[in-house]
Prior knowledge:
Blueprint: H1 3-17, H2 20-30, E1 35-40, E2 55-62, H3 68-76, E3 82-86, E4 99-105, H4 114-124, E5 125-136, H5 142-158, H6 168-173, E6 178-186, H7 192-195, E7 196-203
Parallel strand pairs: 1-2, 1-4, 2-3, 4-5
Antiparallel strand pairs: 5-7, 6-7
Amino acid sequence: MGLYACHIFPHVLDRLMRLRPVAKERPKAVGRACGRVLEIGFGTGLNLPYYGHGVTQLVALEPVSMLPNRVARRLAGSPVPVQRVLGRAEELPFADGSFDSVVSTFTLCTVCDASRTLAEIARVLRPGGQLVFLEHGKSDNPRVARWQDRLNGLQRWIACGCNLNRPIDELVRSSGLALDDLERYRLPRAPRIVGELYLGTATRR
């Protein structure tokens, strides 16, 4: 990984993901988690304040350690006990049925293989366990979707692998998880090309 990916982009990402419109959406997903929880794409810990009393443990997975000093401060104020694990979402280092909930916020856009990641999520969830997700992805407006396809290569370069055009609902359905509910809407004040949101839950049957 180069200078930009290691030392510049993490600061940019943390700042963008702390913006008020994004922060207001996080509790809608994170607040649904309960029991032993796995969060993929933990990043800089911006979801930590939104975990409720029903969470007994949070396992925070990330392929690299970003902004360690900033993350340490956020962990110190965490309302739940946190175990940090370095690893890839495509190869989760956990036994089958290990978790009651898995949380993914703005992560399925960036993992190298979203289908494999979702299959791994289904594997580590207990029967009846839920994936809760808040993601941006492919627009249901054909004109916007075409622009997402056109600009996706540039987006991946600027945002270190983030894709504009992944159809999150289709990916979840094809993973073997049962999609329980899904809300599609636009992030306030954001261009549609990056602000088409998917909020929902899916259950391992």
